Amino acid sequence: MNLEASNSSSGTPQEPSAPSGVSSEGGGSHAVRPKLSEAEFARLITQVRPALTIVASAVLGDRVEADDIVQEASVIGLASLDRFTPGTSFEGWMAQIVRNVARNALRKRTRNPARASGGDALLNHAAGAHKAGGSPPLSADGSIPNPAHFDADVRRALQSLDETSRVCLLLRTVGEMSYAQIAAITELNENTAMSHVFRSRRTMREFLTSPNGRTDQGGTR
Amino acid sequence: MSQSLPPNFDGDQASFQPEAIDRYLDGLMSETERAAFEQAIGGSEALQEAIALQNRLDASLRSEFGAPPAPAGLLTREEARAFSEKKQSTGWSRERRMFLALAALIALIASIQGFFWLSASSNSAERPSLAHIYQGLVDHGFRPSEECTTNEKFAGWMKAKFGVALALKEVRPDVQLVGWSSSTAISNYTGLLLATVDGQPVMVAIDTVARQNEWGFPCRRQPGEDAAVNFFSAEIDGIAVYEVTPRDKPRIIDNLAIFKAGQ
């Protein structure tokens, strides 16, 4: 079977920008720059994959496509090995590629709502169940969020955060990473990463205890 | 206010810095601070609720976003090698010269069209052929990223990766599942099922029909490739499957159907 190749570029992520401090092509005074070998790349990507998956999840707002995003980013990283400077943060470099790929995927979702993730469907389902007279709030005074809607409300609260805050929060909470590790991945300093996490938690707690922020309190979003 | 209490505490929850709960939960407080804060927790329902809420919130996030990694690996070493082979500059065989000539032609077309090299790299024109991937796997022992010898596990992988739990609908004694890998053959998300038929290695490339149509059919031979293997294709419930086999008939893709328990 000999068939012609398609020239479609749809779905192709844009070229990731080189992280700060990483030059693109070999100019300047660096006559020879040792490159990362494919074997080293394979070893490193295996090590940082869980963190990259969390980064992708944070950008997307759900876990559905995160593995695919990381795989696509890995392909780009592999093809761009000569753009990585050994000695700089590999996870930071790959995380930037992951974020770019995930943003493109997010834009595609926005352009094509029919491809909304299963996560969105779950949220809609939860909201629909409430409108249809779903489970009542757990506590009489309404101070404790309804467990039937809690996960959906948490996701809404997460979506109310900016992307960097989501990344920092999930790396800390889900990845159980130190602030130093989070700083290496996000290319922030430790204190800034910590501030993002603390502020995010506080914002989410406020969101979840606010009548306007909870599905079981008739919050509108 | 007790002398032993930290400066950000005066016995009232409202007097704590807003991040005190986070510093407490992160274990960042000194012993003195921690003791004072725990004392405050004991006397404050609001603090207890806030901490309970944060713990519950964390558990929800872990549950929602902490799913185990996908069963398939990123790329096998063979796939990575195949993918990047065009970048190597040694080994000037006839096949390589032809391949490089083709690559140069593609690059020329791409430059005329104003594409950057990297964006062009994801086009199907530069995807490794199925025959190339198959040969690479065979040359390296036909080892999968993850072993899979049962129909149930295969169906689970299909469901997780493609949303459709395809599996073998009947047991064929000559067919033995080996495992799966990931590939960039059809799209960046292509899966490969590795199996043996009468002891001969057989590979099935799997992707969604939508991605297949987006990228173009991948079942093409590149110049210089011999015809040592045959290609068979099918579409089942939105899934495109390509069997690459040394045999003259398909033995796997003609036996795929939605998995049912007990199958």
Give a description of the structure:
Chain A has 221 residues and is mostly helical. Chain A has two domains: 74 residues, Rna Polymerase Sigma Factor, Chain: A (Orthogonal Bundle); 97 residues, Arc Repressor Mutant, subunit A (Orthogonal Bundle), CATH 1.10.10. Chain A has eight helices and no strands. Chain A is globular and about 55 Å long. With 263 residues, chain B is α+β, with helices and mostly antiparallel strands. Chain B has nine helices and eight strands. Chain B is elongated. The interface between A and B is large, with 61 and 54 residues.
Radius of gyration of chain A: 21 Å
Low-confidence stretches of chain A: 1-31, 115-143, 217-221
What is the helix/strand order of chain B?
Answer: HHHHHHHEHEEEEHEEE
Through-space gap between termini of chain B: 70 Å
Helix share, percent of chain A: 55-70%
Secondary-structure-based class of chain A equals mainly alpha
Strand content of chain B: 15-25%
What are the key terms here?
heterodimer, A: 221 residues, mainly alpha, Rna Polymerase Sigma Factor, Chain: A, Arc Repressor Mutant, subunit A, 2 domains, globular, disordered N terminus, disordered C terminus, B: 263 residues, two-stranded antiparallel ribbon, 9 helices, 8 strands, elongated
